[in-house]
Write a structure and sequence with these properties.
The protein is an alpha/beta fold. Helix content is 38%, strand content 20%.
């Protein structure tokens, strides 16, 4: 089938599946499948039966709820590419604000610990954009496998170290693999509420619950990590976390009570998204 007709076919499959951004996702699938040739507007080039079948199957998977990023196998974050798939949270644009707001605090001697690292997008982006020495703590073996791939993909094996461990209950073994004092601790912890988990979009349901559910009110991780990890921060060290759409004030209060001087920053859509505190 020629590219022009195939493009129409893929868009129709996505639209029939209820995909809101069918035009954008059609282009992403075409680019993934046939590369630069998809840019040829209304091209009459025949891509062959094998590629047509692969692209059609991918569109059907997407229409049934498989995340586009899992189908493609990678996604961009803060200008860098990350491998993703079943078992790891997909990097989101709003998380870029967390990186953006913490970079000004870093220099060539800085030490950064990232909690709930998942694909490694936060510590890897920080490492690429600074001279900091970074550590990522993650409990999921599936996520760690992607984290390891992404270290190699982004050429930061010497700047970012993976530490397997539970951020809610770090063992002495886990802590021994980390620096005794850090300049910055970051985290994008699970923060969806029980109600939000019941009403997830079908694509998000394919992502790991371990990386999404933050307890009944979505605040379980925040109540624990500030207290558990504060001792690893240097005096005047920074703790910065991503929060859910309506959690900015609640997390501000939790962090303030834990002994931080707190600021809240909005994401690109104007929603409070990053709560940043300086250790008092």
């Amino acid at each position: 089938m020629v590219i022009a007709k195939l493009k129409q076919k893929i868009r129709r499959i996505l639209e029939d599946g209820g995909i809101d951004c069918a035009d954008f996702e059609t282009e992403q699938l075409l680019k993934w499948c046939i590369g630069d040739r998809y840019y040829i507007t209304d091209s009459m080039e025949d891509i062959g039966e094998d590629r047509e079948h692969m692209l059609t199957e991918a569109a059907v998977m997407r229409a049934k709820g498989e995340p586009l990023q899992y189908i493609i196998g990678e996604w961009d974050f803060y200008g860098f590419t990350f491998k993703v798939g079943r078992g790891v949270l997909i990097p989101r644009q709003e998380t870029e604000v967390l990186v953006e707001k913490t970079l000004p605090f870093l220099n060539e001697r800085s030490v950064v610990i990232d909690l709930c690292s998942g694909s490694g997008c936060i510590p890897i982006a920080v490492a690429k954009k600074s001279k900091a020495d970074c550590y990522g703590v993650e409990i999921s073996k599936d996520a760690i496998s992607y984290f390891e791939e992404n270290l190699k993909l982004n050429s930061v094996e010497s700047k970012v170290r993976i530490v397997e461990g539970d951020v809610l209950d770090p063992t002495r073994e886990t802590l021994n693999l980390l620096p005794k004092q850090a300049d910055l601790i970051t985290a994008n912890p699970p923060y969806l509420t029980a109600e939000e988990m019941e009403n997830l979009q079908k694509e998000v349901r394919r992502e790991p619950e371990l990386a999404l559910f933050g307890g009944k009110d979505g605040l379980d991780f925040y109540r624990i990590i500030f207290e558990k990890w504060k001792s690893l921060l240097k005096p005047k060290g920074i703790f910065a976390v991503e929060v859910g759409d309506r959690q900015g004030e609640s997390v501000r209060e939790i962090m303030t009570a834990a002994g931080f001087e707190v600021q809240v920053f909005k994401d690109y859509g104007g929603t409070p998204r990053v709560v940043l505190g300086e250790k008092i």
